Predict the 3D structure of the following.
Amino acid sequence: AQSVSQHNHHVILSEAASLELGCNYSYGGTVNLFWYVQYPGQHLQLLLKYFSGDPLVKGIKGFEAEFIKSKFSFNLRKPSVQWSDTAEYFCACRDTDKLIFGTGTRLQVFP
Amino acid sequence: NAGVTQTPKFQVLKTGQSMTLQCAQDMNHNSMYWYRQDPGMGLRLIYYSASEGTTDKGEVPNGYNVSRLNKREFSLRLESAAPSQTSVYFCASSVGTSNEQFFGPGTRLTVL
């Protein structure tokens, strides 16, 4: 079965710093990959997704992610974070007819 | 459109009590899911329904049952609640099983 690893459990940044959150999935083939964000007290919302095509995917709020097949990775990036990006971020990968989520990365951005 | 709705928002149970968490979606989605979210463990799939009339176990099904009542509704039942079931429960739906999932606002359940 597919598994998803997010190695950064807690990231603390100052505003305007650059962000990269790691995500690795366990095996290849055709993959559908997702990044979700959960703002404090809210439900999960989709940031971006990759199904096929251009491996650099742009999402909402200035986020992007790069699919690197050889590394089984789908890292999330943002050039300059804002205080409002404080949230928990989840990477997910499709496994047959369901999604497998990573354990999440808590991002705190200080002004 | 309301999207995915869940009731109740909060619930406190005593060990051994039963309850049903309700979920409904108005997006005409085929697939529906129940997750639990615990600190440091991310989201874990309890049960899912790939289409109306089918249900399957996820990663952590023990202690739970589900009913796909119709295309819109997917309920989660705790027959005899245990403190280990204290968690936040999220329902989600998707057009198909490979598509993005849309999440409800969650139910925060405490079992004493």
